[in-house]
Amino acid sequence: MFQLTKIRFLEFWREPEAVFWVLFFPILLASGLGVAFRNHAPEVIKVAIVADGVNVANDAEARNIAGALAGNPGVSAVVQDAQAAEHSLATGKVALVIVSVAPREVLYRFDNTNPDGRAARALVDDSLQRAAGRLDPVHATQQLETSVGSRYIDFLLPGLLATNIMGNGIWGVCFPIIDARRKKLLKRMVASPMSRTEYLASFLLSRLLFLIFDISILVGFGHLVFGVPVRGSLAAIVFICVLSALAFSSMGLLMSTRLSTMEAASGVANAAMLPMWILSGVFFSARRFPDVVQPIIRALPLTASVDALRSVMLEDASLLAVRSELAILGLWLAVCFVLAVRLFRWR
Fold first, then answer.
1. What is the model's pLDDT at position 54?
2. For the chain, how big is the Rg over CA atoms in Å?
3. Which of the four, 85, 178, 300, 342, has the lowest number of CB atoms within 10 Å?
4. Is residue 56 very low, low, confident or very high in pLDDT (cuts 50, 70, 90)?
5. How far is residue 128 CA from its own chain's centroid?
6. Are 5 and 201 in contact (CB under 8 A)?
7. Dihedral, CA atoms, 239, 241, 245, 248, nearest 10 degrees?
8. Smallest Cα–Cα separation from 88: which of 71, 69, 68, 111?
9. SS3 content of the chain, % helix, strand, coil (to 5)
């Protein structure tokens, strides 16, 4: 077992491309997304005010509306004719069109499914009502806060860690076995004093060595550069990562049991990982999908890994609190490894 695990480790370090994609690409991805989606001042929402070139009164009313909105820093208003305003709304250049129906009466046109449209409607209506003399019966003040742990980079980093573990487990296990089978090396190993279980288990053990780099580099980079909090126990994070690595490596073993070409392996691996990239809540919440598919999403190993890591890192959850996610990962590990041992062939 020691010699087999050592071989797996040396094979990895002798491939500079593999080292880059496993250790450094996640840092580049986290840096790009962290900078792109960093917290910044609220964006100014653009709106259009319809002016009637024939009716001078409507033009004056449009200018009055523009004047009322000039004091709102969150809104940028432009006066356009009806055709230009229609085109701007249809192409997304403005989030809201304001039509002056009559003096002191306006019509709002916007897409209710667009968050910017709903926000623009609320901001514009508040400004116009206040300009017309509305007074709020309840005096309200506000206190703006930006909390560490609620930013997008805080949400993203545990998902990137789980995704990196998945990719390393599936690709790092599946490809070397298929490459050895393609080169006719596996059938030579039949004569050696090792069992099928030992050979496959060496791949699982080698993945645990790489976890040291996966966890320390990605989590350390996020904490030092972006201030991503690690509120939970480091031991709990390591345990989740170990169980996730074993589960995904077992999936890689199962994929490699009968395949003999890299093209087939690439297709099968992508077919398994692509749905999880989309559905498992790595880049956005999995709750956005319909309720009917939520049981399937919750049963995916990447969903369990992402949810468990987020709960521990951001919410200081214990392993007991994420026991359902750990059970899902353990089930994938056991089933995939048992099937891989039974279905594996040397040739």
1. 47
2. 28
3. 342
4. very low
5. 39
6. no
7. 110
8. 111
9. 65, 5, 30
CA distance 322 to 120: 40
Please state, as a whole number, how many other Cβ atoms lie within 10 Å of the Cβ of residue 321: 15
Residues 318-327: contacts with CB within 8 Å, 24+ apart?
318/232, 318/233, 318/236, 319/236, 319/239, 319/240, 322/240, 325/240, 326/240, 326/243
Q: Could you please report the per-residue DSSP string of 75-126?
A: EEEEEE-HHHHHHHHHTTS-SEEEEEEETTEEEEE--TT-HHHHHHHHHHHH
pTM above 0.85, yes or no: no
Cα–Cα distance measured from residue 147 to residue 207, given in angstroms and rounded to the nearest whole number: 35
Angle in degrees, 0-180, between the axes of helices 25-36 and 152-182, rounded to the nearest 10 = 150
**What is the rounded CA–CA span in Å between residue 336 and residue 249?**
9
Query: What would the two tokens of residue 14 be?
Result: 């002798």
Query: Which position has the token pair 């792109």?
Result: 36
Q: What percent of the chain has pLDDT over 90?
A: 17
- Of 41, 94, 39, 86, which is closest to residue 69 (Cα–Cα)? 94
Distance CA 297, CA 80 (A): 47
In this structure, the chain runs to a length of 347
Helices 301-315 and 323-343 cross at an angle (nearest 10°) of: 150
Q: Considering the domain 45-131 in this protein, what is its CATH number?
A: 3.40.1710.10
How does pLDDT run across 164-209, given as a tens digit for each residue? Answer: 888 888 887 888 888 878 887 777 777 777 777 777 788 777 777 7
Neighbours of 196 (CB within 10 A): 15
The amino acid that residue 95 corresponds to is: A
Angle between helices 262-279 and 301-315 (to 10 degrees): 50
Domain ranges of the chain: 2-37+148-343, 45-131
